[in-house]
Amino acid sequence: MDKAPQAKKTTAPTVSQINAEFVTQLANKYWAPHVKKKLAFDSMVIEEVYQKEMVTSKYSVRKIMLLEFSQYLENYLWVNYSLEVSSKAYLMSICCMVNEKFRENVPAWETFQKKPEHFPHFFKCILSAALADESEGYSLRDQTILLLFLDHCFNSLEVDLIREQVQKLISLPMWVCLLKARLDLELKKTPKLKKFWSLIRKSDEKLSEKAREQADQERRFLSRLIKKFHTVLKLIPPSGSVSMDVVHYCERFIELMIDLEALLPTRRWFNTVLDDSHIVVHCYLSNLVQWEKEGHLFSQLLDMLKFYTGFEINDQTGVALTENEMTTIHYDRITSLQIHVSKDAKPYFGGELQITTTRIYRAAFAHFPELHDFALSNVAAVDTRDSLQKIFGPLSPNSLHKVASYLCLLPALPENVDTTYEKEFLLELLVSRHERRISQIQQLNQMPLYPTEKIIWDENIVPTEYYSGEGCLALPKLNLQFLTLHDYLLRNFNLFRLESTYEIRQDIEDAVSRMKPWQSEYGGVVFGGWARMAQPIVTFTVVEVAKPNIGENWPARVRADVTVNLNVRHQIKQEWEGLRKHDVCFLITVRPTQPYGTRLDWKKSFVEQTGLIYVRGCEVQGMLDDKGRVIEEGPEPKPELKGDLRTFRVFLDPNQYQQDMTNTIQSGAEDVYENFNIIMRRKPKENNFKAVLETIRNLMNTECVVPDWLHDIILGYGDPGSAHYSKMPNQICTLDFNDTFLSIDHLKACFPDHVLKVSADSVTLQKPPFKITFSVKGNRGVKRKGENEDIDSEKNTLFVEPHVIPNRGPYPYNQPKCNTIPFTPTQIEAIRAGMQPGLTMVVGPPGTGKTDVAVQIISNLYHNFPEQRTLIVTHSNQALNQLFEKIMALDIDERHLLRMGHGEEELETEKDFSRYGRVNYVLARRLELLREVGRLQESLGVPGDVSYTCETAGHFFLYQVMSRWEQYLSKVRPKGGKTVDITAVSEFFPFHKYFANAPQPIFKGQSLEEDMEIAEGCFRHIKKIFTQLEEFRAFELLRSGLDRSKYLLVKEAKIIAMTCTHAALKRHDLVELGFKYDNILMEEAAQILEIETFIPLLLQNPEDGFSRLKRWIMIGDHHQLPPVIKNMAFQKYSNMEQSLFTRFVRLGVPTVDLDAQGRARASLCNLYNWRYKNLGNLPHVQLLPEFRCANAGLLYDFQLINVEDFNGVGESEPNPYFYQNLGEAEYAVALFMYMRLLGYPAERISILTTYNGQKHLIRDVINQRCGNNPFIGRPNKVTTVDRFQGQQNDYIILSLVRTKAVGHLRDVRRLVVAMSRARLGLYIFGRVSLFQNCFELTPAFSQLTARPLQLHIIPMEYYPTERKNGEHPSHPVHVIKNMPEMANFVYNMYMHMLESARQYRQFYASQQLLPPPALGQESEPVQVSTEEEDGEEIENDTKPESTSETTVEVEGEKEEEAATKDEEHHKMPEHPGRDSDSEGEEEED
């Protein structure tokens, strides 16, 4: 549990440092993008930069960061690379730049696409350098950089340029470096490979000598690299001092091996080569493993490598091996060793290994009489490590070598020659190969779900927030491909667990530090503080340890009682008493060594200072009452308990308890459960990790049945387009598009490349809704040209059939709600794809109508497949509510809608769509319908009480209503073709009295067909009443609300909505209920964690071994922000922020890219549309008045305003990552105040920023300047860009904060979100010199910097204006030079408006307001002092540059004057200048 040294934060260079740097000076001469006259390429510059900036600084991250940021790779290194200039310095410089790009998480390979012809030579040079000795000039540090570069290459197989080179290193020919016996063995196991091997040999013979030599070097590269690693590993001494360069090289090498083993395309061939090299055995016996501190990470990486080398998969077929198959392979290996007794010995276990190796092993033990007992033993008696060591330990090294050579593990030992291998290695080789392994699923089931102190503070597993991306970590990675579903779930399980552990660590450190544990005078613990989320434990007792279940060796359950003294504020006491069943708490033991009053030093180890010894998780069962019984949750009020002592019964983790007790008994360690002295709770929203982990573990224990058409795509293999509807075998020909199209012209415009054949010739009949028949791809193999042409013409022909929705009744509410959105052709393609079976992925840029498309798909599925059920999953409650509100506006019966989770409270409707809300709706609706039945009974004159229950109503319908209807039909539709008078339809209609309350007359009397349709519509209305009552009949039989809600979920609801978190938490309950669904639609799919996207696919049990899932529609935008991962290591190193949606896009799964936005002005859209495929504008963006008019009082619709240091300070960082910039905050608020004074509505303006610290500062400034002023007020929102994703506003004021380094805005996805939130106006405050040089941001910032960098305002122009956007204003333009000038201007304008208002009231005869101050005049400078609550005065000495020395005090004359002028006016906040500390506790976004 030794805590690693506190990781240091990589300090980004400041702008002044950048300008002073040698690199910057060179860049300005040779490659800086903004320099027009550059010097010619000089290779000596690269040598000089390499020596001075890289080698001399020992590859300092700061130096390399500076070089990469200057666009060294893009503008100098690669564009000038050629065979002639290639050198060590050149190669190392390129590798360092690529590695830095990966560290910064920015695209790395795009640059190489510009000159791809040079990449093969460059890659060949890298391979040679990676194998070079130190004598050739490549130090181990250099080669570690090369290893990292190669690792990035192997993890970028989706890039064609990289894949072409990597495939030469890893393929079947690389087996040339295997032992001859091993090669023969492997080829015999897979006969198909033997054929391929022969073909490879023949093709090699045709190659030239040089080509054959080159091919041989590539094939043997990895084998030679392994040998080189082995040499380096031996450099580490058993004691003394160890070179960290050697250690880092070994760590990076093992990381590369893990990554090759964890990808099926590379593992398929490489696993055999790795196994043949016995590298895992060599590593476990190496000196590095013995070094406790230096070798700790290496040992953890080695455990990961061992796990993957023995992974449960068939390397050749890629099929996951079951537990039985793994057992068979293990038994085969042991029995292969045993076969030796007689010539005719037959194996008693069949299996893949046994069949192919019997001939080799048959005579293996004729030479080893001492192993006869082993040969005759059963497998279970000899397959443990101890027994194998006892059996093979007495053998000599030569004998062990011979055994290994019989097994094709080592080359044969010549006669009378001693082995060169050490006995320790030979013994470990045989034992590790044949020992019994615990299955992966068993290991997982025995793993505790709660983290302990050993994991929580292990920097290699849970790094600090300062992880810089330099070193490697013992963490799984989420890349493009996975070995099996088990591997997929296991990696996600581990990462989710560790990300939760990181958050738990933060909570524990916060709570324990607030409690201030100190050592008392008598050696005990005394708490000098208190914490809301933690309490000292009075007593702790384990009350139950249940017997293990059959087949398990851990207790079935362990329960304990925890007593605390809640002598705290009433509100906090209620929070503790409100702990619910399944809430997770943590039990902590601290033994502080610090004396009373010692302050905590955050730079030192938290664990050592607080004396934290143990951390164990527990799950609350409930609080105990006075009699010691658990108080059950329910509607009944909880009993009042006396005093402050409260006892909670908790469940402990049985696996952890078993491990702790075993450790106590075997090693004599103290009992963990006798020492707890703190219990800590967590916020409910952040405390669902255990339920999600249990869900993933349950999935791994059940047979995960993913639909066949999805299986390979989820793992990342096969044809990425195989699940597209066009390739699905069950594609549907005819689809009813319902109200999707607004007219036949709309339909024609949506299919411009198709010929439409409409079944109705009359134009009047060509009205929606339309059924469309598509030509589905038929049988292949058409050979004749003419037939091919016919097929093509058919393919482009659509058969359109208009149809009339049957009349639903005479009441206005019977008319179906219709779609009013004129969908674009691309949106129609998305809707069509969503209606077809298969996987549909829709990329929806900002403002392209993603939600409207989703709602239309849901509506169309509901009407086309009424028997199917659709599950809607989103990332946030807000998105789910937006979706639901739009669904309610369409023609969907609300009794079929159900919203699960807690977000339904936020729905902007009086209707309750939660489970119990729907039950109440059904019960109320039942009574309403029964009243209608009573009215119908009365109208027909039928005696009795038929409207008592659904059952009696059903009988009434069958015997009274149907009989009358059939009798009526016989009169108005007589047999024999007799004509019927038009009046008969109305005359014989039996339900006139019932429909007396409908709009009259019911029958028009103009045409027989029309009146008959009306009559049938009336009957459909009546029939629907009884159909619904039949559906509601179950609610009469089910008496409890719980049973009714379950029935509703499983049977009644057709469209069920929930968040991805709710799905993960409730999977077990849903499966238990027998929940079923056919379609899944996911909104915000690019914002959902990979595992939380996968779990909703498996919320139902398979039917006969197959999943009933037919459609999976994912709608999202991978160019916007990904899921939030708080720990930088998991985000960067493990790529945990990659959503499944993004991975599918990277794999090449076909997407429908929506291409027309209707949110923002076209000019604003240009700031981000470069990131998308052909993103254009909808017509209304150019036509509607709000888009055509200019922004009043502002010359431009968007502007980047440069903000220099204010009072000599740019960005500040009061806490780590809590960035603030007072100058920008004041400027942003001043602009907001100016807009409000011009008449802009406050709710149409939002202020955004890229950092949480700045958000708090802006809120402080608003509170001080204008928050309580009724003339100005507050903007709609002040929040971060990340939080505002998915929202929009007309006018956005954006603060970029940073002045030293670009920071996380360099992530283009964040830039896209920031630029796309505004509809009409975007005003950005930032340090232009910093952001304009950033390569990734160039497309946006080149447009922003094309306009003036000082704010241009038109103070005489009030909101709203009639000036057209782009027109020169009739009023003069005023240029604001800096923030103090803007603040002065706004202040004077405000005071002037007050004066005008006062004069207007006094002289109401004068109808004209006084104008604002003359534009040519300079505003008077203002020196302000503000008084804080404690009376402390803070002054601001800042003055605009061109002002006189005269100052006016606001607290004095002006404020007094304002008070006399307007008694009702709230005080105008003072001039900017004071920096307020934020008191907000919100965490970093």
Categorize the overall geometry: globular
Quaternary structure annotation: single chain
Strand line-up across the major sheet: 15-16-14-17-18-13-19
- Report the mean per-residue pLDDT as an integer: 85
Structural class: alpha/beta
Distance N to C terminus = 30 Å
Q: Estimate percent helicity.
A: 40-55%
Helical segment tally? 56
Low-pLDDT runs: 1-10, 340-364, 779-787, 1412-1485
Radius of gyration over C-alpha positions, nearest whole angstrom: 38 Å
* Main sheet summary: 7 strands, parallel
Describe this structure in words.
This protein is globular. It is of the alpha/beta class and 1485 residues long. It contains 56 helices and 34 strands. Helix 50 packs across helix 51 (1252-1265).
Short description:
With 1485 residues, the chain is of the alpha/beta class.
What key phrases describe this protein's structure?
disordered C terminus; 6-stranded antiparallel beta barrel; disordered N terminus; 1485 residues; 7-stranded parallel beta sheet
